[in-house]
Amino acid sequence: MDIKHYFVEQGQGENLVLLHGNGENGGYFHYQLEEYSKHYHVYAPDTRGHGKTPRGTAPFTISQFADDLKVFLDERGIEKTHILGFSDGANIAMVFALRYPQYVDKLILNGGNLNGAGVKLSVQLPIIFGYHIASMFAKKSEGAKANAEMLGLMVNDPALKAAQLAGIEAETLVIAGTKDMIRDSHTRLIARSLPHSRLEIIEGDHFIAANRHEEFNRIVLDFLKN
Fold first, then answer.
1. Average pLDDT, integer, range 10-35
2. Contacts of 66 by beta carbon, 8 Å cutoff, 6+ apart
3. Which of 96, 143, 157, 173 has its CA 20 to 30 A from that of 114?
4. What's the whole-number average pLDDT of the chain?
């Protein structure tokens, strides 16, 4: 393992890992950490190359982040955990659940997507354009290289098919906003493809965990407890 994750840890009880989105850090879950730690042993790590966790030398991919999560859990002797993933964090959670199902208790997928086609075109086109521009200058500039890697996560990753989700046996809550950057049809496809899923669409955009945190937290805790 070529990195050590920076993480925040709080609470006692069953384990719950919070996985943030692209370009963010564990601090995104400001409104969740305090509330969830009343009931669970919560971990909010910064993903490789995000926040205070170093980039390291391994590939900068969703697949690698899923492998990183396994190492993170193994280092702490965590054999089973609930996982809440937001955006790219949800994508990491899906890949992780397929690769390491024995670790997963319940799964919460907030604003995840199977591939780039799941993102609304108005959002995805500027990302693709920015990715290609950054890639052109990546060999000349470390900043451009880092930017290309970050944008590349949203252009090239994940690369899942709906049929693969049949392999996730964990009870799963799929939750998104009414004005999410993920297509509503795509969110519903994910929920429909999971064997044991519950779908919740609440008023708001992609960032409902922050902007609609009271409703979001109530739904998530209800799912985890029941």
1. 97
2. 92, 95, 96, 99, 100
3. 143
4. 96
Q: Encoding tokens for residue 218?
A: 């109530």
Same domain membership, residue 23 and residue 86: yes
State the Cα–Cα distance between residues 146 and 98, nearest whole angstrom. Answer: 28
Q: Do 74 and 148 reside in the same domain of the chain?
A: no
Of 96, 119, 222, 226, give the one whose Cα is nearest residue 165.
96
Rounded Cα–Cα distance for residues 61 and 148 (Å): 12
CA separation for the pair 83, 25 (Å, rounded):
16
Residue 150 is assigned to a structural domain of this protein: yes
The helix/strand/coil state of 210 is helix
Q: How far is the C-alpha of 24 from the C-alpha of 80, rounded, in Å?
A: 25
Does one domain contain both 95 and 126? no
Domain count within the chain: 2
CA dihedral sign of residues 22, 54, 34, 80? positive
Q: Over the stretch 107-151, which tens digit does the pLDDT of each residue have? A: 999 999 999 999 999 999 999 998 989 898 878 888 888 879 888
The domain that contains 31 carries what CATH number? 3.40.50.1820
| 1 part of a folded domain | no
H/E segment holding residue 195: none
Q: 58, 30 in Cβ contact below 8 A?
A: no
Instruction: Tell which residue, 19, 23, 216, 37, has the closest CA to residue 104.
Output: 19
Give the separation between CA 110 and CA 91, rounded to whole angstroms: 9
- Does the pTM exceed 0.90? yes
**Torsion 168-219-188-211 (CA) sign:** negative
